[in-house]
Design goal:
Blueprint lengths: L7 H20 L3 E6 L1 E2 L5 H5 L7 E2 L1 H13 L4 E6 L11 H7 L7 H4 L13
Parallel strand pairs: 1-4, 2-3
């Protein structure tokens, strides 16, 4: 995927991914980089109020799934977006789906609806 960082911070992240690739190529390592989009717990006030970020949200369950599947995968190098199955998601997760079998379960828009039970929430 071509990189086009917008900030110095983003440049440092891309540098880290390039450095990881260097170690894969020169030291026979396996590295998967996960670009965690917007992580908030299910009970986060920010998750309830910052609806403009819903498309970028990654739930605890989905992020854990991505990490576990990445650790178990026989993949030499990859860069994945850590994002849930949100309505209107614009990050491409097809490589994570194909390479490690990532199948995000949560959708910030569905969880925000008061009639829906949230995963991990205590039942009353």
């Amino acid at each position: 995927m071509p990189v086009r960082p917008w900030t110095v911070y983003a440049c440092t992240k891309v540098f880290g991914e390039a450095l990881a690739r260097y170690f894969v190529d020169h030291y026979a390592m396996s590295v998967i980089c996960v670009r965690i989009c917007w992580f908030q717990g299910y009970d986060s006030e920010r998750l309830r109020t910052q609806t403009e970020l819903y498309r970028e949200w990654c739930s605890p369950r989905d992020l854990a799934q991505l990490f576990v599947k990445s650790l178990r995968a026989d993949v030499q190098f990859a860069v994945f977006f850590g994002v849930s199955n949100n309505t209107g998601r614009y990050w491409d997760i097809s490589n994570a789906q194909q390479l490690v079998g990532y199948q995000p379960q949560d959708n910030a828009f569905a969880l925000a609806q008061p009639t829906r039970a949230q995963p991990g929430a205590p039942r009353t």
